[in-house]
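Example record used in the benchmark description.
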Amino acid sequence: MSQTLSPTPTEASVPVLAIYPFDARAVAKRFRHAAIFGALEVLEPGEAMRFVNDHDPLPLLRQMQIHFGDTIVIAYQDKSEAGVIIDFIKQA
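Model output (structure tokens):
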């Protein structure tokens, strides 16, 4: 199920054309948010970044809501004690 960066569920308005992996665990903590935002900035509509992390990044999601608004949709692919896999999908 997809959800916007707020808690309200929605569906992506464009199909996912390409998915690019981003393993946040491999990025030094002090650079993570900058690297994630940079990667999201260069996505084209219909492209997604598949984000892997060892925890649910709720503060990051709040920052994304402020910065990107409704242009980025999140879709949890997996959420467990081991971490999360989330698709960040760029909208038109």
